[in-house]
Amino acid sequence: MKLEAAGEETQSTEEVLKAQIALPIPNSPAYDYKIPQEFSSKIKPGVRVQIPFRNKKIIGVVVSHDKGQSFKGLRDIIAVLDEEPILRECDLMLSQWMSEEYYCSWGEALNQLIPNYLLSKTSSVDFFNEKYKILEDSVSVSVAPSPHELTEEQSQVLDLVQREEGKPALIQGVTGSGKTEVYLRLIEKYLDRGKSSICLFPEIALSEQIKHTFIERFSSRLEILHSRLTPLEKFKAWLKIKSGKVQIVLGPRSALFAPFSNLGLIIIDEEQEFTYKQDQVPRYHTREAAKKLAELTGAQLVMGTATPSLETRYACDSGAVARAVLTKRVTDRTLPQVEIVDMSEEFQRKKRPVLFSDRLKEEIDKNLQEKQGTLIFLNRRGFSTFIHCLSCGTILSCGSCEVPLTFHMGDGKLLCHYCEFKCKVLLNCPDCGQPTLKYGGMGTEKLESEIAKVFPRAKIGRADSDIARKKGKVTQVLNDFKEGKIDILIGTQMIAKGFDFPQVTLVGVVLADVGLSLPDFRANEKTFQLLTQVAGRAGRGDVPGRVIIQTYQHDHHVIQNASRQDYEHFYSEEVERRKELSYPPFSNLVNIILKGKVEKRLLDFANELRFHFDQHNKDKESVVLGPAPLPIHKLRDYYRWHLMIKGTDKAKILQHIRETLAEIKKPSAIQLLVDVDPVSVL
Ligand code: ADP
Ligand code: ZN
């Protein structure tokens, strides 16, 4: 890491003590400050200090200190805020690694690991421990015994993970195979050894049920983190974890940074979930950061899922990750029966497009008669998703984003799904004036009204992000469904994950093709995962489940393998395709995204960037694609272009990007961001 003085660089010969302080400023190294004599014994890596920066006083974190030549402009540290480092040694190394791996400054990465509250307060951690009575004794409770005896498969998995200790492990288990119970047992084993555990769930799956299970087992030894905590609540939780008052943390990706001093185990449930990649600086992937943290602390990493990411499953083939499988659901529940319905055949037979196949109708009818729950899934919200003029062909789209507008009947408005744009429903075409606008396409809202027409006596509910905007509404809908007050629940991917509704015996997927045609090399993977997860919602109670998948591409390998719930077969086909196209896991991608309001200037800069990058990449080790417009070309008035760099040596790519950006001047009206290992390129 290159260091730089915060002031002017005039030579002087005086020998002084200096501290290097990381600040959350983009593209900046750590800054040098002078350590006044009275602080010389207090400065250690990991303590907070107050420093002058430009014309403000700010809080920074010491990352190192040394003796050296002073420069005239070197400014003094104003105050040392902590007696002891607030960070562990591994935090400093982890954040430095993050800054190198994910293209940000050390300070930006470090700030991810420190509670925000602490970065705005000058009191010491000891002061807060006192104030919130964190260190006062609490009764140590014992762990409640498990209500279950492990199945043979569960015991084997537990054994394997322990046998292979030291190597990351993947528990690949079908939905309902009891992975959670295995996690709980592992956590207990580490507790017995005096070690703490972090258990990560994607936010959406932090369902009441999982919380309940963990609380029942671990009561006050557990801390649950979630994104709705206030900064003060987060800070208090941090203090409790740091002081050793709790030994288990359950939470979303940020819980990885729980400051345990004796970390023994990191569990990542549903490791393939894309919410594990942070979409703002630092753009880290939780799984990779967890691997690094495990390496630094000696903790065991365990990942669990029914549908591993291609990267993780491939790492099992190469021997870097140990793999344990759970092939059966617990208590002999069978996996649901899946049936594919070919909608193009249905179309030919009926000579008109239909929403529901006869098969799906029959099965819904049967469920209504038998008073069992039905879940209908469509990954598109709104009523009409495509409005075009039959006279002139115009498609109504958002002026700021250039994406088609969606009609929402509930609001009586046309909405853009990418910005806040809204307008009244139009009857005449804004271009030619003819009253020939056709409201085509279909979202969950229209689906709801269609189902109501076909099944007038059914009680229908809907859960999508339109509903989610009304506070508490989704929870209410889900509760009503659980209590049987709703017969048919319609939803988007929001309801695909994590929810356990024992009374659901039928799941219908209205259009399985929705995600397959997206211009994204992960489209197959995402669709397979989604279909498997949706199917996994069926038959979690005593009655076996049925799943009906409607599709226009019934022989697509993703649809076929998803219908057989055959991950391994899907994987073997998909990994070949990735290899052929040299996509991850066979390469690394780095996406450079450029945004600006004036498209010509944006393009000029993109071309300049490309030209300079090519100079560094002379031997063509990396492949550069673009500049090309992003699939969503214009968003909130900003044009968006990108350069995609693909290669096998990530460090080299990043080095070339650093060199390139150091030699060209980016116009301030253009935003540039570097996304390493992107999970989405829309
Ligand atoms: P997964 O996470 O693999 O989808 P879960 O952990 O949710 O599966 O387990 C499904 C259900 O099976 C849960 O209700 C859980 O309490 C129950 N269960 C887990 N292990 C056992 C067991 N050994 N015996 C009986 N029931 C079990
Ligand atoms: Zn818009």
Tag the structure with descriptive keywords.
binds zinc ion, alpha/beta, GIY-YIG endonuclease, Rossmann fold, about 30% helix, 19 helices, 6-stranded mixed sheet, binds adenosine-5'-diphosphate, 7-stranded parallel sheet, about 675 residues, 5 domains, 28 strands
Describe the overall structure:
It is a single chain. The chain has 5 domains: about 15-130, PriA, 3(prime) DNA-binding domain (GIY-YIG endonuclease, 3-Layer(aba) Sandwich), CATH 3.40.1440; about 140-330, P-loop containing nucleotide triphosphate hydrolases (Rossmann fold, 3-Layer(aba) Sandwich), CATH 3.40.50; about 335-380 and about 445-580, Rossmann fold (3-Layer(aba) Sandwich); about 385-440, no CATH class; about 590-675, Alpha-Beta Plaits (2-Layer Sandwich), CATH 3.30.70. Helix 4 (about 150-165) crosses helix 5 (about 180-190) and helix 15 runs parallel beside helix 16 (about 555-565). Helices cover about 30% and strands about 25% of the residues. The chain has about 675 residues and is of the alpha/beta class. A hairpin with a 7-residue loop joins strand 2 (about 10-20) and strand 3 (about 30-35). It is built from 19 helices and 28 strands. The structure holds adenosine-5'-diphosphate and zinc ion. The site of adenosine-5'-diphosphate has 15 residues, from helix 5.
